[in-house]
# Entry
Amino acid sequence: MGAAMRIFDATKKFPPEERYSLVDQVRRSSRAVSANVAEAWRKRQYPSHFASKLSDAESEAEEVRVWLEFALRCGYLQREIVEELDNAYDRIIAQLVLMRTRPTRWSTSP
# Structure
């Protein structure tokens, strides 16, 4: 949630012509990470469903990283901000992979 909010704040400064393209894409994918984790958590009693939603979150997190690279190359974000966010999403992906590969560790089933 924190990384998505940081992206929300950073994209407020993008040019108006990017509102319905790059801004929309990076905000949607960053929010989808949190939403998919929330869905996964509610499905944790079913390890395969839990892992599937975590996989979706992982894909969205990687998509965020691509949009950040576009923002950097277009000159909309400074390198330091992109590196900070990229590192945050790298850590998020690592956590998601750990959870996805060991879903029974978080399972609520008996």
About this structure: The chain has a mean pLDDT of 95. The helical segments are 2-11, 19-42, 47-73, 79-101. The radius of gyration is 15 Å.
